[in-house]
Automatic annotation (TrEMBL):
It comes from Cryptotermes secundus. Pfam families: AAA (PF00004), Lon_C (PF05362), Lon_lid (PF22667), LON_substr_bdg (PF02190). This is Lon protease homolog. One of its GO terms (molecular function) is ATP-dependent peptidase activity. The keyword Nuclease does not apply. The keyword Nucleotide-binding applies. One of its GO terms (biological process) is protein catabolic process. Residues 12-220 form the Lon N-terminal domain. Keywords: ATP-binding, Cytoplasm, Hydrolase, Nucleotide-binding, Protease, Serine protease, Stress response. CDD domains: RecA-like_Lon. Belongs to the peptidase S16 family.
């Protein structure tokens, strides 16, 4: 591993320490209790999102004489970038963490860019991470270095060689660059806070040597004096008590218990390496990986424990030892049990369950996992993730979910090369380390939300992961040796296939999961979601009663989604309210009768639901109140979160012939609106309407699509807009229970559209009765569940004429003869 290109990030989170200085090359244990430092650790280290997150800046506070007016010490302007080697935490008697950090290099703190909840500073690196050879032209400096090395070896001679750090430092004395040597020696000796700050401030090598040499000399003199008169306790400054001989390499215990800092004890380092060796052996690495790991372990043995590199290598070797190279969970595949499990956990979803069982059956017969990767595609909250979890459960495998939403970096998947400071393995390898077996079910969630950033395309890296031919030799950049992923069962989920790169799409078998009907939601709520929520809130079934009517209200008036996630949240809110009531009751109330009546169960009737959740969010009354007026029509739209009912309101007023479109529309939808208006203008006469240029020149038209916060696009509202305009100009209302969808051409021909099943479900959810669809979409109706179909009437149309006939009360009179209409269509 070369370290020539290494540099620290420009912005780093800061850890403020008091009365102590971390010098580059040395390691230190820092107990953390202050709220700022705790916040930094929680958000930057325990929640590692970015690869640079293990690098922090350790900045001392200024000594006391620099107190500012408020009495708080400002930060010193020079600090030390450090790699966090270990974080340990305790929660008792009060929460605190201890960090083990190794100093890398100095930096100057230019400015703070964030102060709350923790500090983040912009820094300029002052030391190089890899130091070039010493400048041998400068004789004065060479002399200084020489005398420093002499003093350093003198000091080391006087220390206890049984201490492995002392022994190692002694061995490396000749080769260690003077920059590091000065810092390391200064960190070993007893020196005051101010003296150490001066060494920290000395960026220039000769300056640093000049500052640390006297400290070294003083320590040597002190030790010599102690040797001569071991009982002389008055020479306190130099005194190092015999029992504390090795303590010379650590500050005395009472010092660091006061300032809460300590250098790393390294006596047990040999044991640690031994342990690591054993762990590596137990992990049964394949020969190629074992060779690399052992080589790194050997390098680790040779390095000083306090050198920055040793922390990095140790982390690598530990990962190698912890990865499940040869550990699998025993697989239990019984198709009958799998069917029972899937049915028990999920209601409906028949197509998906059937396909999953087929997939598992083939795996069982073929006894391997090669085959297409399943990808569940559907709106949010329809149970894609939870089916993945159930599959892992029936197979008796571990489950790990990797959320790919927003991932735009190749190294998220494939890790970062170890030359990068703070490098970490990719999410796949991290996942394997977490589950500890090499055959988990890995759910690649939201595969449609990958994006390409400046650091490569994560989709390209996923291609290799998902390809059964290649993934037996998957090379993570951090690991740098192949890891066999062929035993991992990958399942992907997506909301839409539109944004999945074609090459990735090609490797997956898509299984569409549709939104649920109202009835299905009622079943899911009562059989699955409610029992789950009751249990989560510590409620028992005798404490609360949920009449079916209340669930119906919840489904129809408080949620309007394709999945059931909001429904689950609303049930959770109701359970919380009940839990508060139950918790407030006396123990006696829970069992005793009160005037002959028990206070339990609490009955959540419609009034109680409204009381807790507030007034209904979606009431059909609100939709109905606008329908049935001239100029209002109901369309159907498809979005990535399922079908939606789309209200179109058209209005006209005196003006200068302006067309105003509002409601967060995309370009295609705006074009559709213009097209519909032009169709109305050209054909108005056929419908007995007087819409000429003169009229339009003095009329402003405003077409609004309520629910302005929701983006809308696509051509399928063309028919609805045209119908709304005809209704407006003819002043005849459209039937209130009709929804329509279809793309319209300038000649009024209706073209087929996408997402029909979702749209029909949305119309059904909204309680509409008739759906007007393009004729060519008739074939899509076989996907719609029978119980939905039976509640709706479908009118299949190929021209706006038929739309108007079906949508207007009593039909719409046309002036044109059917022959004329036929000739118009045949010309297209
Ligand atoms: N058919 C069903 N039967 C029982 N519970 C269900 C069903 N569908 C969804 N759920 C429940 O709904 C909740 C949300 O499901 P889940 O998180 O799996 O949705 P998702 O489709 O993965 O959504 P997203 O695309 O947002 O990740 C879960 O608690 C799940 O158990």
């Amino acid at each position: 591993m070369t370290s020539m290109m290494m540099s620290i990030p420009r912005q780093i989170p800061l850890l403020v320490i008091d009365e102590e200085v971390l010098l580059p090359g040395s390691s230190m244990k820092i107990p953390v209790t202050s709220s700022r430092n705790m916040a930094m650790i929680k958000s930057r280290l325990l929640n590692q999102r970015s690869l640079t997150s293990t690098i922090i800046g350790v900045v001392p506070k200024e000594p006391e004489q620099h107190l500012d007016i408020s009495g708080t010490a400002p930060l010193h302007t020079v600090g030390t970038a450090a790699v966090v080697v270990q974080v340990t935490g305790i929660s008792w008697p009060q929460p605190s963490f201890t960090l083990l950090v190794t100093g890398l290099c100095r930096f100057r703190l230019e400015k703070l860019v964030m102060e709350v909840p923790y500090l983040v500073g912009v820094v300029t690196q002052l030391d190089k991470l890899a130091v070039d050879d010493e400048d041998d032209d400068n004789q004065e400096l060479m002399d200084l270095i020489q005398s420093f090395r002499v003093e350093a070896s003198k000091l080391l001679e006087m220390l206890d060689v049984s201490n492995s750090t002392v022994a190692r430092l002694k061995r490396m004395l000749g080769t260690l660059p003077a920059h590091h040597l000065a810092d390391l020696c200064a960190s070993l000796v007893n020196a005051s806070f101010i003296e150490k700050l001066q060494v920290l401030d000395a960026v220039d090598l000769s300056e640093r040597l000049k500052k640390s040499l006297p400290l070294l000399v003083r320590q040597i003199e002190g030790l010599e004096m102690l040797r001569k008169s071991p009982n002389n306790r008055t020479e306190k400054h130099y005194a190092i008590q015999p029992k504390n001989r090795v303590m010379i390499i650590r500050p005395q215990r009472d010092t660091y218990s006061r300032s809460d800092h300590a250098l790393v004890p390294s006596d047990d380092e040999g044991d640690e390496l031994q342990e690591l060796h054993q762990k590596l052996r137990a992990a049964k690495l394949p020969p190629h990986a074992s060779k690399v790991a052992m080589k790194e372990l050997q390098r680790l043995k040779k390095l000083a424990s306090m050198s920055p590199e040793s922390g990095i290598i140790r982390t690598y070797v530990e990962l190698m030892a912890e990865l499940p190279w040869s550990k699998s969970s025993p697989e239990t595949l019984d198709i009958n049990k799998a069917r029972q499990d899937l049915d028990a956990d999920h209601y409906a979803m028949d197509k998906l369950k059937r396909r999953v069982l087929e997939y598992l059956a083939v795996r069982q017969l073929k006894n391997n996992l090669r085959g297409p990767i399943l990808c569940f595609v559907g709106p949010p909250g329809v149970g894609k993730t939870s089916v993945g979890r159930s599959i892992a459960q029936t197979l008796g495998r571990e489950f790990h979910r990797i959320s790919l939403g927003g991932s735009c970096n190749q190294s998220d998947i494939r890790g970062h090369r170890r030359t990068y400071i703070g490098a970490m393995p990719g999410r796949i390898i991290q996942g394997l380390k977490t589950v500890g077996v090499n055959n988990p079910v890995m759910l690649l969630d939201e595969i449609d939300k990958l994006s390409t950033g400046i650091h490569g395309d994560p989709a390209a890296a996923l291609l290799e992961v998902l390809d059964p031919e290649q993934n037996c030799n998957f090379v993570d950049h951090y690991l740098n040796v192949p890891f066999d992923l062929s035993k991992v069962m990958f399942i992907a989920t997506a909301n839409t296939t539109r944004t999945i790169p074609p090459a990735l799409l090609d490797r997956m078998e898509l299984i569409h999961v549709q939104g649920y009907t109202q009835e299905e939601k009622l079943h899911i709520a009562s059989r699955h979601l409610l029992p789950k929520q009751l249990e989560e809130h510590g409620l028992e079934s005798h404490m609360v009663q949920f009449p079916m009517e209340s669930i119906k209200i919840l489904v129809s008036c408080y949620t309007r989604e394709a999945g059931v996630r909001t429904l689950e949240r609303k049930l959770g809110a109701l359970c919380r309210a009940v839990a508060v009531h139950v918790a407030e009751m006396n123990v006696g109330d829970l069992t005793k009768k009160d005037n002959g009546q028990t206070k339990l169960p609490i009955i959540l009737d419609e009034a109680a639901v409204e009381d807790i959740l507030g007034p209904a969010l979606y009431s059909n009354n609100e939709l109905w109140s606008r329908l049935g007026q001239p100029g209002v029509a109901v369309g159907l739209a498809w979005t990535t979160v399922g079908g939606e009912v789309l209200l179109v309101e058209a209005n006209k007023m005196e003006g200068d012939g302006e067309l105003v479109l509002t409601g967060h529309l995309g370009d295609v939808m705006k074009e559709s609106a213009r097209l519909a208006l032009n169709w109305v203008r050209t054909t108005a006469r056929e419908y007995g309407l007087q819409i000429d240029g003169e009229l339009l020149a003095h009329t402003d038209l405003h077409i609004h699509f309520p629910a302005g916060a929701v983006g809308k696009d696509g051509p399928s509202a063309g028919v609805t807009i045209a119908a709304a305009l005809i209704s407006l100009f003819s002043e005849r209302p459209i039937d209130a229970d009709v929804a329509m969808t279809g793309e319209i051409t300038l000649r009024g021909v209706v073209l087929p559209v996408g997402g029909v099943k979702e749209k029909v479900l949305a119309a059904h959810r909204a309680g509409l009765k008739q759906v007007i669809l393009p004729k060519k979409n008739g074939k899509d109706l076989h996907e719609v569940p029978e119980n939905v179909k039976k509640d709706l009437t479908f009118v299949l149309v190929s021209h706006m004429d038929e739309v108007l006939q079906a949508a207007f009360t009593g039909g719409f009179p046309t002036v044109a003869s059917p022959q004329d209409m036929g000739s118009v269509i045949s010309k297209l």
